[in-house]
Amino acid sequence: MAASAGAAMAAGGAPLPPADQSLVDGVLARQRRALAKSITLIESTRRDHQERAQQVLGALMPHTGRAIRIGISGVPGAGKSTFIEALGTYLIDRGHRLAVLAVDPSSSVTGGSILGDKTRMETLCQREEAFIRPSPSAGSLGGVAEKTREAMLLCEAAGFDVIIVETVGVGQSETAVAGMVDMFCLLQLPNAGDDLQAIKKGIVEIADMVVINKADIDPRAAQVVRAQWKNALHFLRHASPHWAPPVLTLSALHKEGIVEFWEQVLAYRDALTPSGEFEAKRRHQARAWMWNLIDSGLRQFFRHHPAVQADLPALLDQVDAGRTTPTAAAYRLLGHLQAPPAPNIAAGSASADASPL
Ligand code: GDP
Fold it and tell me: Residues 229, 176: one domain?
């Protein structure tokens, strides 16, 4: 995050160095190697790589935005890779090109659990029209999500017209993925009671579609769970006035319900496009992404500011001991960003009207 926050943006109109230009040309020519190398550049935490990555991305931006972006979330074992394989094969047979990316909060700890296993999506892996990339393994979830978002843009520039971002149903990763895709889908197991868990976690609000997988095991139980979900969704205020999230049952293993899933994706796009909502959602996501980066960049800048570093330990002690209020301490620290470092930084003299930034 630190490096990307300070990376230079692509210089307007300035020619790229030959190596980077050949990456841009390669991505546009749909060369997998150039795409993979560009994503590696984006995932690098080296500051010079980050600057180059932003230049490459900047040059490719006019060629992005033409794909439909789908988020798929589900607990490990829900059947995500089986489903994506079935959907991907169906789409490729109909002339689409599919990229699958992952946001995996556990990858920063374990080195990647989803998509990391090469035996997953075996059929899809062999198709020229599919591109599968595991989650980047470095950095915080915020950093991983940011890189996945940029990888998604690179895949679009390389002509992939369906992007799937996969995530496991834990932590903040679902919100991060919902914030980068057009349509966010929850893949559920046909277990009664799971819906309540999702409602508690606040995940249901961001779902544009709910899919009950493994309906082949017990079709009747799957229908019961479907009814529970429909009921739960009925009482929620939906994000869009033009779309009520549908609940589907399917069997990824037997490739049943895949056509219906895709029909709902297209119906979603058709429902949100006439009012401009589809594009507005993307604009909103892009702005939110920018502000996220600004927030994290400011935080980094603040924490590394010499006066803040000098003042912080004593102020923390004072807050701990109840001698200074958190508000006064925060204003005092933020005040260091406005003024040159004060010669006397004795704690406790924070001015009450010092404004935060
Ligand atoms: P992931 O961890 O969410 O990616 O789940 P997987 O796709 O690896 O699936 C976990 C297990 O569930 C595998 O053994 C799959 O074969 C099985 N599975 C996936 N979808 C279905 C389904 O629709 N029906 C049945 N019976 N099994 C399924």
Answer: yes
From 98, 75, 68, select the one nearest 86 (Cα to Cα): 98
Ligand 1 atom closest to the CA of 75, numbered from 1: 3
pLDDT of residue 205: 81
Nearest CA-CA partner of 221 in 241, 251, 242, 198: 251
Gap from CA of 143 to ligand 1 centroid (Å) = 29
Mean per-residue pLDDT over the chain, rounded: 84
Q: Which residues contact 234 (CB under 8 A, 6 or more apart)?
A: none
Contact 11, 310 (CB under 8 A): no
In terms of domains, do 167 and 307 share one? Answer: no
Verify that 31 and 82 share a domain, yes or no: no
| pLDDT score, position 104 | 76
**Is residue 356 assigned to a domain?**
no
Total domains, the chain? 3
Which parts of the chain register pLDDT below 70? 1-13, 105-119, 137-143, 170-171, 192-201, 339-357
286 C-alpha to ligand 1 centroid (Å): 34
Same domain, 197 and 159: yes
- Confirm whether 220 is domain-assigned: yes
For residue 158, the enclosing domain spans 64-273
- Whole-number pLDDT of residue 352: 38
Q: For 224-242, how does the pLDDT look when each residue is reduced to its tens digit (9 = 90+)? A: 999 988 888 887 777 788 8
| Domain-located, residue 156 | yes
List beta partners, residue 284: none
> Are 140 and 236 part of one and the same domain?
yes
Cα–Cα distance for residue pair 195/201, rounded to 1 Å: 10
Per-residue model confidence (pLDDT) at position 255:
96
* pLDDT given for residue 122 in this prediction: 84
Spatial neighbors of 16 by CB under 8 A, at least 6 apart, are 24, 55, 56, 59
How far does the centroid of ligand 1 lie from the alpha carbon of residue 79, in Å? 4
Q: Are residues 48 and 69 in the same domain?
A: no
Same-domain pairing of 207 and 139: yes
- Do 159 and 269 fall within a single domain? yes
Note the pLDDT of residue 168.
Answer: 83
CB-based pocket (< 6 A), ligand 1? 74, 76-82, 213-214, 216-217, 251-253
